[in-house]
């Protein structure tokens, strides 16, 4: 439980009402926030929904001044809500202790206040920064360096020589540093090209569950600072993303492709290999980029083209069945006219 | 080995032939069922295939009365086969014991006859119901409640506060309760919205391998009773499915979408977020639902529309290359006619 | 570090220059190979790039005879590079020891020089061949047989009765032998059809990370010799691949489909169930095969058709918006002609 005035201070909010009330957690305006929670409303419409709930307080824009609830006025209600929600976030993996069942190589260097859970395996030459959490069953391979304040969930696999920055979150079952998919095909078979590079995860990256990020063939696969990757995404060897990219669930990027900054790939999308995608590019769900893309583009379809263009083409293609009938009729009319003119 | 008359009793079947023969296992009519097995045939055609095999007995509909094999007549041969096959199903993870290497928090409450395998980690406040099996390397997070007769395969990750009902099967590597993908974007970066909800898996659900089901942002992600989820499926935060849905491999559902009862999503399909899909809806493979769907619909394509309609459009679009040529010719004929009429 | 003449001997290469120089590793011609490395160049153009780097030697075709670098002439530079790279490949999981924390059933038979890592669990009746590596947290189920010289990465799950040949590599988090997705639907629910088959992985197969391969319903799911499977692929029950297939990331094959030899499925592609795909078939990225396919085909699209044909259709469909306008105009001209002819 936290006092409302303390929460408001975190976000620089202006309280209209009683700042001494106690808040028990966060709630959703649309789905019935429960007694004593705080919620947010970006519009008067949602504010009215919030007033119907049992919430104690609502975070609102400065344009909302009257309410049956206590208000906290801010510039960005959604952001303020996220920051306040953080105060109520449980940290179930923080223990501050190293569980005796974890196997830690004598040459590994573990920072202060690190939490290591049962059955984690920390291999030779590993460095782990202060306050980082290593979940149960995690494997940290030879020579891996992990920064400070990271959160590695259960059963994650971090293969040798991976580099992870600070404040990185990795969800369960993810594999970093598996071999890239590289073979030379001869008549005897597909000969494996050793993958001798590594994976670099920069600061403030978050990676979902059961993601796969392959090591580079030579050199590194690099996930840029502040990028957020969703579940079941695949990033092939030598892919590089700029900072603050958003890659939604089940998407994939083929080998050696480079994304600029703040590229957004919606769900189940894809990018061919050896391409350059500019900055601030958005790819719609299921889109597939098949050639280099300029900064600022908004694309959809396969091959991905300008979204408006693709929309026109999709809408038009739905009319092709009737078009075929129309052409058939026009053919007849044309034939009749040709006959009439001949007869004359 | 089991006596045929005992197997027939399980399914209320009528034996034509010797009920005392011993059955060693199950077999496939089309792929050469081996000596002493029992198989099934839904039609006379498949029955003839079954007669060519070395099977000892065949489960058939009541319309089949003559055979070189011993027959078991039932209403639903496929279902009866499945129930009889169950008698021969190995249960390799059932040990009835708690392996000494499992780490179990003192406050966890473990039911009767639970099997816990090596290196399973059971965290604080967990409850596990009777006869449930926890496989090797499984992580059961804080406060998780699991019902009776569940089967959790190796290396599954069950994050804190997840609720699992009775008779739930979860295959290897699956992650339940990873954080939903939620961020507020500002010019400083993407600020993480804490995901404070949980995951609820109702009774009789089966979940495949390497599946990811995110916890709700606020409130629960809910998998309805009797739903069967295939491998590598992704269900985002606050998704809810009705009972008895079928979600085939590599499909994905975006955040906050609700499915009705007995919705079928074929392989590699998808549903956009914040939608309502009715009951008994079928989505074909690779289809993508982009707007609310009425009960009883059968959809395909992207955006998913009525299947017959989509089929027409796809068939028509294959004719567009020849249509372009046809239009070109019609243009010429039209121009000639216009010229002729002018000359006159 | 290795002497160049020893490396050249491995690949039967002809040295032009000093064969006594020491090589420290491999590098990339295009991305600045570092001091003392060896790289390769298939063309004079790439050779020129290589000359600008700090590499000590370049593997080239026999047509390249002059260089500022030491040359190694071979028939297939890419293959020779892969073989030489192997000499510098770290083998971080090879220890030659069985870690005391691994749990090994007394009836398991472990070959010579096997490496078993912490927290691996080897169940009853397992056989593991010489020099095989079992990574941390791997679960090897009852009765599993694994051949010689295999490399099983961390947290892989190998369910009971799986058979794995020699020189098989399996990357982290993969699950072999999960139950196939099989149910009989009645009004009471979806009744589980026990999956009583297994999985067979033949020699020289490589499987990526977080892959799922289901056991057969009856009989085996079989991955053919020399096949290479990329990350996050799903292979359903009773799928069989011929030898030397290439299945790229995030693809899926539905139940009982058989692939011939050297079938290539590019990324995020799919094949419907119960089909036969011939030999040497190539399916482009995102393609979906929906009916039997003859050997030698090159297909794309959904449903997958001849690639050239599909390309034509896609190109034509982009012109449909303008076509609609064109038809509208032609309609008008046709109507005018009809009117003129009537008036006359």
Automatic annotation (TrEMBL), chains A, B, C:
GO terms for cellular component: membrane. It is an enzyme of class 2 (transferase). It catalyses: a UDP-3-O-[(3R)-3-hydroxyacyl]-alpha-D-glucosamine + a (3R)-hydroxyacyl-[ACP] = a UDP-2-N,3-O-bis[(3R)-3-hydroxyacyl]-alpha-D-glucosamine + holo-[ACP] + H(+). Residues 31-86 form the UDP-3-O-[3-hydroxymyristoyl] glucosamine N-acyltransferase non-repeat region domain. The active site is at 237 (proton acceptor). It holds the Pfam family Hexapep_2. Its EC number is 2.3.1.191. Residues 313-340 form a coiled coil. Keywords: Acyltransferase, Coiled coil, Lipid A biosynthesis, Lipid biosynthesis, Lipid metabolism, Repeat, Transferase. GO terms for biological process: lipid A biosynthetic process. Catalyzes the N-acylation of UDP-3-O-acylglucosamine using 3-hydroxyacyl-ACP as the acyl donor. Is involved in the biosynthesis of lipid A, a phosphorylated glycolipid that anchors the lipopolysaccharide to the outer membrane of the cell. HAMAP family: LpxD. Homotrimer. Belongs to the transferase hexapeptide repeat family. LpxD subfamily. This is UDP-3-O-acylglucosamine N-acyltransferase. It comes from Anoxybacter fermentans.
